[in-house]
Every structure is written in structure tokens, then in C-alpha cells.
């Protein structure tokens, strides 16, 4: 039962060319990610720089495959893992996505490395729990990202005399004013960004406890409360540009930058893109707020690196993991990537503007933490794939009850 979802992922069409694996004859490390675009590549480049400084005789092979949500990369990776041809380390997400790799026996237990390096004492305890299975640690988290963020054009809201909405119904109401200005209320990207949007609507409409129950079987997807939240999602889509959705998250945010849209829902990798790549000033030209209805809640995801079973350059892979977990690596990476450190002992003074605000919320004991659907924290890959398929139909047809039933049925098939 547990292996089925991994095999289903491996059978997915590899829509990007598969990379030829590295030879084990020369000192190198092949690192597999989906960080290729603006706002992503810069963070990876910082880790590569630090790795080369610490390991000058080892070639760093960047095996990244493009695709904003990582779906293309994961399909290619699954094919390689099925063929027993793993990279030396690959990117994954803490939570249920990682658990799938563990249960299929394709990544190594890193508990001894955590113990020898003292990482158990410096990693955020909640995050440590989400990379641990049956008492064993399986990945090195390099960051904390936040999904429940509403990015907006400051000038547009000032001109319209609007403030970031506190509820999704308020956002829908703002559409009348924004439409009169010739501005799209909500910019949307490709299918994975629509999944990301849907999870934030569910979070805002249902609250953190009920939202979390969706992923554990404690909340019935068919219930009136959940269907009503999904119907709100269909109303949100009506004030968006879903009919001409952008190709990925960067062009989705470009609509905010050029003033043709007021809002966009996306994770905090946006900060790096808008500030580092486009040179915009936070809180002057653009800003961010919690997605409607989620003040005090942190919808988290974490990128983490693994040591695959059968890695050809195991020693160099461990050297890579040590860079990822180091104070220097986490600070260099996260200040470029727009994310927060997984460690609790980094230099907090480096995190300014948006990052300062977000770090304060992450460290606030009153903040409620939930996991992201779109980014691997709460749903096994097999179930998530079926949710994505059903969502494509839902976006086109708008039948909330039918979508809810499809998701509930898929849960029983893939996890029940």
C-alpha cells in the first residue's frame, strides 16, 4: 500500500530530459534540485560557493531541473530512483513527501551524522520532528518557507484606498473597486500555484485546526463546512485572471510589478525575486500580509537534502549536507532565497525587511504552525497527485461537492 504512491510517481511522464548520472571515478558531488529560476538559483549558488570553498578538489554538479513547483524534477528523480541511479543528494520537502522516500527505502538514515555534528541541538524542534520517522532522521533541512502570504502592489492599494483583506469575502468585495481601475484583483499562475491558492483559501475559511484535520482523516471533505470553503475558492477564481494564468510563479508576480494586478498568493521565495532580482523596495513598491483569515498562522514548508541509498559519492554527499546544515550555509542561502533558517542559532540581524517580520512570527510561541499541501508537508505524493488531477477539473467546472468527494475517495485509496 505504501509503495504504491512512489511507483505512481515514478510512472509519471518525465516532461524534462533526464540527466545522465555522474561517474563515480572522479571527486564530485551531484546535487539534484528544481531551483533554476530567478529568486531560486541565487540561493543555491551560495551553497555551491561555500561547498567549493570547503572542498576545492570536488566538482559540484548542479543537476537542477526547471519547474516552479518541482513536479517536473520529482518525476525525473523518481525514474532515476527506480533505476537505482540516484544523484548524490536530492532536494525534498519535510513531512509526508519525505516519508514516502523513507518507506520506499531510497534514502539513508542520517541520525549518526546529526549526532556527530550536534544538529539535534540546533534545529527547530518542530521541524526536526517532521524529518524524523521511527526515531531516525532522514534529511537535512536548509530552510523554513511560508506559504500563506498575500503579496500586493502598494501603489494600487493606496490609489484605491484599500487595505489587505482580512477575509476572502473582503477580497472578493474589493474586486468592484479594482475592476473600475482596470486592475485584476488576483494574479494566478500555473496549476501548482492554483493548488497553493486553494490551500490558503481552505486555511482562511476553516481555521488552522479544521484545515489540519483535512490531512489526517479527522475532517470529512464532504462536510458542508468544507464544501462551503471550496465554493469560496470558486468565487475567488472569478476575481482572478485564471483564464489567462501565467506560466509560473515569477510571471504571476510580474503582474503585481507592472501594475496590472493588485494581489498574488505565493510563498516567500517571492521576496528574493522582487528584491534581489528586480531591485524593488519592500514596503514601498510591494509588500506582503498573511492570506485572508490566517493571521497568527504559519503555513510552513521546508526544503531538505537527503543522502540516497546507493549514492556514488557518499563522502562528498555528506560534505554537501554539512554545508547545508552549517550556520554559514543557512545564513548565506536563506537571505538570498527569501526563507528562514532551520537552525535556531543563526545571525538574526541578517534577516531584514520582510524576513525580519516573518522570523519574528516563526519564533513567536503564540503562532500556530500548519503544513503546506502544495509543498509536500501534509499529503503523500500519491494522494497529492490525485488532488491535483481533481483540481484541474474543479477549476474548469466549479463543482465543489464533486471535488470534495473525489479528494475523499482518493484519500481512502492512497492512505486508507
Automatic annotation (TrEMBL):
Signal sequence range: 1-16
Pfam family, one: SBP_bac_1
Main location: other
Record bears the keyword Ligase: no
Keyword Zinc: no
GO cellular component labels: cell envelope
Keywords: Signal, Transport
Subcellular location: Cell envelope
Job description of the protein: Part of a binding-protein-dependent transport system for a sugar.
Protein family membership: Belongs to the bacterial solute-binding protein 1 family.
Descriptive protein name: Probable sugar-binding periplasmic protein
Biological source species: Stackebrandtia albiflava
